[in-house]
Amino acid sequence: MSNGKLYLVPTPIGNLKDITLRALEVLENADVVAAEDTRQTIKLLNHFNLKKTLISYHMHNEQGKSNEILDRLRLGENIALVSDAGMPGISDPGSVIVKKCIEQGLEFEVLPGATAFATALIYSGLDSSAFTFRGFIPRDTKSRKVVVGELKNQKETLIFYEAPHRLLSTLTFLKENFGNRNLSACRELTKLHEEIVRGKISEVIEYFNNNNPRGEFVLVMEGLTEEEIEKEKRASFEELSIEEHIIKYIEEGMSKKDAIKAVAKDRKVPKNEIYKYSTNI
Q1: What is the structure's pLDDT at 248?
Q2: Can you point out the beta strands (E) in the chain?
Q3: Angstrom distance (rounded) from CA 43 to CA 84
Q4: Rounded distance between C-alpha atoms, residue 277 and residue 257, angstroms
């Protein structure tokens, strides 16, 4: 008996019309549908008149359930894996079973489809040429400090998911740790009450202080700007004397001549003015 195949099937993030013909075909032909929340998935299947056997597969049982799914695959069953919405494995269960399939040589296929963060990124109007997706920001302080350390100096656009009841505290956290950057808060994407709020983080906070946050959010925040980089650079040398500034660049590997040029550029003064301070260096 040949092994079955696992299919990771994206489902609509709101508008049911966004399901693909291929996703419907896979769901129809699957022997079993493994769902993050069977109550949500049954609504989707019923809408498309699909009668399937459902098993529960979510973040609290995925280690144990993964073995059951692998056993079913070895028995020749074809299994469709779905999350509540969007792509399985993106801030949802899925990565564990994929890793085990790879380790054990079992076949799987990933279907393309709706993904909330990609939709929100384009809606934001921020730079989409390079971005970092980090999913949900951790709740505990220690893990949050790690996130700040890893992301604060990145120039790429940053993308997070957030629940409505934590939105304002998360926006405040971002403003306090990353500065008052441009940010887009996207909620209820593709649904009837879809809303995109753009502005400085302080402006978005003010908006949701006056409008109760509802629905799931995708936060798209600009990365470190050239203006911020220049500001930090100025702050780093403002406490140095001109001589110390020159020495700093020399210690970093510059020649004395290039160090003088760099200091002149930093301080926006003529090179001959800086040269006077270099004679004893």
Answers
A1: 84
A2: 6-8, 32-35, 53-56, 79-82, 108-110, 131-136, 157-162, 182-187, 195-200, 217-221
A3: 11
A4: 12
31 Cβ neighbours under 8 A, 6+ residues apart: 4, 53, 72, 77, 78, 79
Instruction: Please state, in angstroms and rounded to a whole number, the distance separating the CA atoms of residues 35 and 60.
Output: 13
Please state, in angstroms and as integers, the Cα–Cα distance from residue 213 to each residue in 157, 165, 237, following that order. 23, 7, 42
Give one DSSP letter per residue of 169-201, joined into a string: HHHHHHHHHH-S-EEEEEESTTSTT-EEEEEEH
Query: Could you identify the residue written with the tokens 């997706």?
Result: 133
Q: How far apart are CA 205 and CA 211, in angstroms?
A: 10
d(CA 261, CA 139): 46
10 Å CB burial of residue 27 (0-12, 13-18, 19+) is buried
Q: Report the alpha-carbon distance of residue 250 to residue 147 in Å, rounded.
A: 33
Q: Under DSSP, is residue 32 helix (H, G, I), strand (E, B) or coil?
A: strand
Please name which of 32, 24, 38 lies closest in space to residue 84, comparing C-alpha atoms.
Answer: 38
From residue 178, give the alpha-carbon distance in Å to each of 37, 139, 173, 213: 35, 17, 8, 22
Give dist(CA 68, CA 257) in Å, integer. 69
Among candidates 169, 182, 58, 161, which has minimal Cα distance to 118?
Answer: 161
Q: pLDDT value at position 92?
A: 75
H/E stretch holding 158 reads strand 157-162
For residue 28, the SS3 value is helix
Parts of the chain with a pLDDT under 50: none
Cα 135 from chain centroid (whole Å) = 4
pTM exceeding the 0.85 threshold for the entire prediction? no
For residue 221, list its beta bridge partners.
Answer: 158, 183
The DSSP-derived string for 55-80 is EE--TTTHHHHHHHHHHHHHTT--EE
**Angle, to 10 degrees, between the axis of helix 167-178 and the axis of helix 201-210?**
160
